Amino acid sequence: MKTVLASVATLGLIVPQALAHGVELRYKPQQVIHITARYDSGEPMANARVQVFAPDRPQQAVISGTTNAQGEFQFVPDRRGQWQVQVRQGGHGGLLTIPVATHAQATAEVALTAVPEPPRTVSLSQYTPAQITVMILAVLWGAIGTACFAWSRRRLPVES
Question: Could you give the residue ranges of the DSSP H alpha helices within 36-110?
Answer without folding.
Answer: none
